[in-house]
Prior knowledge:
alpha+beta, globular, 13 strands
Amino acid sequence: MKTKGFTILALASIALLASCVQKTKAPETAPAETVVEDVVPAPVYDTTQPRSVLKAVAHAHGGWGDLWKKNDVEYTYDYRSADGKADISTERYIFSNEASFGKYTQHEINIMPNKKGEVVQCFDGKETVVLIDGQKTEDEQMVGLGDFLRKANYFWFTMPYKLTNDGTIVTYQGQEDYQGTAYDKVHVTYDPEITGKEQNDIYVLYVNPETKLIDRFYFSLPFLGVNEPVIIANYEYEDIDGQLIATKRSYFMPSENGYSEEPNLVQTLTNIKFANGFTVENLMENL
């Protein structure tokens, strides 16, 4: 297990570095399921065909077609480390072009942790701009950070629908008991010929065969030298207008003594609202 030097600072960068393994864009038209019928039958859940498990996961979450029809989302994002420091933002996404907006009223971890001031990041589907106290910055590091966060936060929100993107390699690894539930373990990684990376992200998903939800998963952070899936994420869900959203995400990092009982990082999503009428032109307005 390669965890030497993997500190709380690295864990605090989960949202920065553990996603966006592919640059696949959302489809330009709604998925076929939304055109053919409003009610999509549940897909077959067959562990001998592990991709069917992931399709069942997507369906259980409410379906990409349903999310597409909602057009967009806004929510409050609280990203908090064990020492009480937090990044708090208002997040907005448009599903058709993956536009992503974040307004940070508190930023003590990833974004200018030693400085005050409101930070706004906006990716319009093509490029990212960053505003500090209303002024556009040309600082390459701040713009690069903003670009990565915008795409990463969007990825995490839509993750159940991205696990079968082109280039994913999916295998079934049997069952494992956790807190009284026999979970199906599904290993997901990516074809390097598609991603262009020698070392790709790895997820080991714990899928509840009854609910078809991913309650827990392990993942890697190759960018930080953590090449094995040893970081744990535990998810708790709420039904928001027919979509099951992971509104509480608890992360545990490994150490020489194993894992602590309390999470090293907790992310919460509140005030979730769909169908706000956002467009690229008005995404940054009325805040």
